[in-house]
Amino acid sequence: MNILSATNPLVVFDLDQTLLNKQSQLSAYTLATLRALDKSGIRYTIATGRSHLSAAPVLKAHQFPLPHIYTNGVLTWCPNEKRFSFNHCLNVEEGLAAVETMSSPQSTPFVSALDEQAQRYIFHGTMKNKAEKNLLQRLSKAEKVSLLPMAACRGNLHVTNISMLGPSVEIHEVNQKIKNEADLIAYSGKALTEEYRWIDVHHSAANKGAAVLNLKHQLGADSVICFGDGDNDTSMFDIADECYAPENAVPKIKAVSTAVIGHHDDDGVAQFLRERFELTV
User: Fold this and answer.
1) Does the global pTM surpass 0.85?
2) Which of 68, 119, 184, 246 could serve as a FRET partner for 87 with CA atoms 20 to 30 Å apart?
């Protein structure tokens, strides 16, 4: 479909390295653009690899009224009804099996889970490196999150993802192990320091594309325009009518995009939106 002829598009944004600037914030320019989309009646939402917990601080500056897609499509949060839809979660047994696979000398997996009442839990073992200790300290300050030892991970919980932060060599090795697990998929990237990396593991059936397509049908949208920069955006690009990659995107995403737009730290997405929809700000 030609988006120019679409009358009811759904616009979907990745967050990090796409809609957010290098400070992981929504800039004043981007916020003004989102408000202009609201005035024009153009519907939009986010599809991110972040969890609901880690995305909450960066979304405080603006209300995104439509359902949000988190953890690469593992779950969807409806802000109006204040409830989660669990798309493709692991059960506790599967989650603990993943922890065993990821077990490493210098890194400890963190298991994120929710119960039927949407109570958040993070289970962990003994901290093995400084980065993990810093992460645990930050998590301990988060609201409405129960931090518990790994031994307490049991019962009828929805395991959304298993994450780990550690030496690059170890994380690369774990990534290779996960590739041999049919029901799991991993995404990894550089941490704040060069010698460390993060890895995030979840059910292989979960992806942004399927979640976006489901939301498109729910809303009765006639098309999808999406923006993303990384490997976890590939499935979203596959189902979109048009897909745009910021200048800083990985080569794979640029190659399959409709067009490459401005850098994420230069408000590339917002600049494109203002021109494309002739927004009055």
Assistant:
1) yes
2) 246
